[in-house]
């Protein structure tokens, strides 16, 4: 198993980490709050989807609601598998510049489902929020930024996957839009992790503790959280 995918996953030096990820951060607070089940508002979600994406978007949202009902209380492996398949099948990978006219836009699950298009961050965020809504503990889920090697070449590209950790020290399972099957991290030798985060923190540089210094602050995630509140997710 690659050491970089354990509970203290990231072996990059601080300088390497900042050089790679510094563009993602702003000098403000994390702005990350755990989604609250009590704030989940299906009717407002329906209204938001209808207004933004019409009947086609609403139909996908109803499929999502039906999946939530079907999977509540089921075995976590079944939940992981079906949530992974749901978004991999219903969202077509398209670059942000084409969908949003921006180089890097993190979509909410509603935006991703309504558009039917998105990139790696959009898949990962949608799976994360859905699994949390199914009561999978947030501490077991992390969105992981990686460098993904393309084919047999040494060419890499920035990529995001969702990791599920059965325990803090467990090897994570990787939910990805590139490889459709859920696989242990040890089998994903094409991925080199840089940092990971969830609703409660951010991990990098080999530390087991979440970073709370001014550089560990994700502006795009904060913006997604704000839009999800408006739409009715949290």
Automatic annotation (TrEMBL):
InterPro entries xrefs: TAT_signal, Transglutaminase-like_Cys_pept
Listed Pfam families: Peptidase_C93
Coiled-coil features, chain-numbered ranges: none
Listed Gene3D superfamilies: 3.10.620.30
Name the record gives this protein: Transglutaminase-like cysteine proteinase BTLCP
């Amino acid at each position: 198993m690659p050491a970089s995918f354990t509970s203290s996953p990231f072996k990059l030096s601080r300088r390497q980490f900042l050089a790679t990820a510094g563009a993602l951060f702003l000098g403000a607070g994390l702005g990350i709050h755990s989604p609250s089940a009590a704030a989940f508002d299906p009717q407002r979600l329906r209204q938001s989807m209808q207004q933004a994406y019409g009947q086609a978007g609403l139909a996908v949202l109803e499929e999502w609601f039906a999946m939530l009902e079907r999977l509540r209380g089921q075995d976590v492996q079944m939940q992981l598998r079906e949530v992974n398949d749901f978004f991999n099948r219903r969202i077509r990978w398209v670059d942000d510049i084409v969908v949003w006219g921006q180089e890097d836009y993190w979509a909410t699950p509603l935006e991703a489902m309504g558009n039917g298009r998105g990139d790696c961050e959009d898949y990962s965020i949608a799976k994360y929020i859905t699994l949390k809504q199914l009561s999978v503990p947030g501490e077991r889920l992390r969105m992981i930024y990686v460098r993904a090697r393309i084919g047999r070449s040494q060419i890499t590209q920035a990529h995001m996957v969702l990791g599920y950790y059965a325990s803090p020290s467990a090897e994570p399972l990787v939910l990805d839009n590139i490889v459709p099957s859920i696989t242990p991290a040890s089998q994903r030798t094409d991925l080199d992790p840089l940092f990971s985060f969830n609703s409660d923190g951010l991990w990098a540089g080999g530390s087991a503790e979440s970073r709370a210094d001014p550089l560990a602050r994700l502006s795009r995630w904060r913006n997604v959280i704000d839009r999800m509140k408006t739409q009715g997710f949290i």
